[in-house]
Design brief:
The complex is a heterodimer of chains A (about 400) and B (about 240). Chain A is α+β, with helices and mostly antiparallel strands and about 400 residues long. Chain A is about 55% helix and about 15% strand. Helices cover about 35% and strands about 25% of the residues of chain B.
Chain lengths: ~400, ~240
């Protein structure tokens, strides 16, 4: 019996293709919107998380000066010295690695090639902290670090711009007037989701940058990575306490340095994209609801329009229940068909959008299933009222209806 | 005026006892039926006549189990219809009754075959069997070859024959026809009447038919006239006036 009712419903839908497709339009748009937004949102979350992770796992960066904050007014603050970095390495527990960093933007020259980049003075620990590895050549030796020798490691972008396809190891490049021998190259890391090219840098020993380029003993930043399983927040608090002490900041004053905790950044960003995804999902849900009301509206019209037909069915012996089920099935078939179309459209749009936005396309089967079930449920819920209206018609009245 | 069951050898199909029907209440109440006693036996061909508002349509609705009496008893094959629920009456219609209406009442945009299959669908007859029986019914009303035509593509007479095929496809005990020739010219009307007569003669289906036209009523073997909610006359063989 149910099978025949299903056939009846399908026949009825087929008989009025235009009206049926207009009816499901709301559902199609709603489902497509939810699927697109949730899928792209999921991809964006995955990309942002992966990006931040590529900056270095458990990375904590300490910089002099107050961090970016509303208002913009900042007090100038003293740079760190190498002793600050050494004190952190010595006194803060739970560290996997510590790298002092000083940077300067300058022209790098090789033959006729000329590239403006960031020269970063640091130690080998920088690679560990940044979760990075050399792609060729070697790292700095202890002697080179101690002596501040003119040797360097090139980021992938700098290597391409300066040397093209040439084997870089052993080549001498110039940083302003200073000749510097390339001892290795770094693996490609790519862009961050904030559009920053991570491969546009040259690594030199810290002491070389301080003495021969900057002409001071400043350390611009201290990068630290926490050991796995160690709370980055605890490490951050310990560093803050130690630096306040060393920089003699009285308790009534604010820090004159700031700490950037990547783990925190990850969770903040993930939280933000989650909220955005939920918001977009909610917008989609509203349009699904509107689609449901559209279905109810059309079904009510259809009940009025088909009053005579219902009268005929009742007169020749259709039970109230059978008419109810017929209309419910019609509504459910319509709306779940709309759901299927919406899922197809949504996935297509999500795939296109993911390509355009350069985020991975991650198929979320959960949301696909949910959207389908929800759209079918919308049909049943919003179809019920019109269906009951139809089933309760008086056959005599219904037959008389013009 | 009233007939007794003992006068007939055939089984008693329909029995109305002191049936009244009142629409509305208080001052506005309309007494459509004011005490009807009626017996119809199996195999009869009854014409019901009477002016508009005489109660004949109300009586037909009650006989067809589409409506229930306000008071009095309606027994269909001995079963008191007044005690049945809406659903039970639907089951009774499905099982024992066939309907033919003045306006044909076929489903639009649906082929003749599908229209005829409809009652079988509600009976739960399987698709293959449904098709065979519907084709047989269409054949018996002379519409072989027209199965796939929709009502819009058929003449009035043909549509009415589809409606008759739909009514008899379930082998009903009683066929109710409400002015079946009302929308047809007299030639087509006669064809329909001949078809109903044949069904009555050959298949023994009890036919109860409302009509305005004495010419059509002559096909029946018994004529009941209504006036003012009462039976005015009840005669045999083409109808005493």
């Amino acid at each position: 019996m149910l099978w025949s009712i299903l056939l009846l419903a399908l026949r009825e839908i087929r008989r009025n293709v235009l009206r049926s497709s207009l009816t499901i339009l709301g559902i199609v748009i709603g489902v497509a919107a939810v699927i697109t937004m949730v899928t792209i949102g999921g991809g964006a979350t995955a990309k942002v998380t992966a990006d931040v992770r590529s900056l270095g796992s458990n990375l904590i960066e300490v910089m002099p000066g107050q961090g970016p904050r509303p208002g913009g007014a900042r007090e100038s603050a003293a740079m760190f010295k190498i002793e600050d970095a050494e004190a952190i390495a010595r006194e803060v527990s739970g560290l996997a690695a510590m790298a002092p960093v000083a940077t300067k933007t300058m022209q790098a020259i090789s033959g006729s090639a000329n590239w403006s980049t960031t020269v970063t003075g640091t130690t080998n620990a920088y690679l560990q902290v940044r979760n990075w590895s050399p792609a060729g050549g070697r790292q700095f030796t202890d002697d080179e670090l101690r002596a501040g020798s003119a040797v360097c490691l090139l980021g992938a972008t700098v290597r391409k711009e300066l040397l093209g396809g040439q084997d870089p190891v052993g080549v001498t490049i110039r940083l302003q007037k200073l000749s510097c021998q390339v001892i290795g190259v770094l693996a490609k890391k790519g862009q961050t989701s904030f559009g920053m090219d991570q491969d546009d840098l040259i690594l030199v020993p810290l002491r070389m940058l301080q003495r021969r380029i900057a002409g001071n003993t400043d350390v611009g930043a201290i990068s630290v990575s926490a050991r796995d399983g160690v709370s980055t927040e605890k490490v951050q608090r310990d560093i803050e306490r130690l630096l306040r002490e060393r920089r003699r900041i009285t308790p009534d004053k604010d820090d004159d340095f700031h700490v950037r905790n990547m783990q925190q950044l990850v969770s903040t960003l993930a939280g933000t994209t989650r909220v955005l995804t939920a918001l977009l999902g909610a917008v989609g849900t509203v349009s699904l609801l509107v689609g449901g009301i559209g279905i109810m509206n059309i079904m009510l019209v259809s009940v009025t329009e088909r009053t005579r037909e219902i009268g005929i069915r009742l007169a020749i012996g259709a039970l109230e229940r059978e008419v109810l089920v017929q209309f419910l099935v019609e509504a459910a078939v319509l709306s779940s068909f709309g759901g299927l179309v919406g899922i197809g459209l949504g996935l297509a749009a999500a795939a296109a959008g993911a390509t355009a936005l350069e985020v991975p396309f991650i198929l979320n089967l959960g949301i696909v299933t949910l959207a389908f079930v929800f759209s079918a449920a919308v049909g049943v819920v919003f179809g019920f009222f019109p269906a009951r209206q139809a089933a309760r018609l008086d056959p005599i009245e219904a037959l008389r209806h013009e | 005026m009233n007939r007794r069951a003992s006068e007939h050898a055939n089984g008693l199909m329909i029995e109305l006892t002191a049936v009244t029907k009142v629409y509305g209440a208080g001052q506005a109440a309309v007494r459509a039926l004011r005490g009807i006693d009626l017996r119809i036996n199996q195999g009869e061909f009854v014409a019901v006549m009477g002016p508009s508002g005489s109660g004949k349509s109300t009586c037909m609705n009650i006989l067809g189990c589409l409506d229930t009496p306000t008071s009095g008893v309606y027994r269909f094959q001995g079963l008191d219809v007044g005690t049945l629920t809406r659903n039970q009456r639907a089951l009774l219609r499905r099982r024992y009754l066939g309907f033919v209406f003045q306006g044909y009442n076929l489903l639009n945009r649906t082929s003749a075959l599908e229209n005829v299959e409809l009652p079988l669908l509600y009976r739960g007859v399987l698709a293959g069997k449904r098709r065979v029986r519907a084709l047989q019914a269409l054949e018996s009303v002379g519409l072989t070859g027209w199965e796939s035509h929709t009502p819009g593509e058929l003449s009035g007479g043909q549509q009415q024959r589809v409606a008759i095929a739909r009514a008899i496809v379930t082998d009903p005990a009683v066929l109710f026809a409400d002015e079946p020739t009302g929308n047809l010219d007299s030639a087509m009307g006669r064809e329909i009447m001949e078809l109903l007569s044949a069904l009555n003669d050959e298949r023994g289906i009890t036919v109860v038919m409302v009509t305005h036209e004495p010419e059509m009523a002559k096909f029946a073997r018994r004529t009941i006239r209504f006036r003012d909610g009462r039976i005015e006359s009840d005669g045999r063989d083409g109808g005493a006036a």
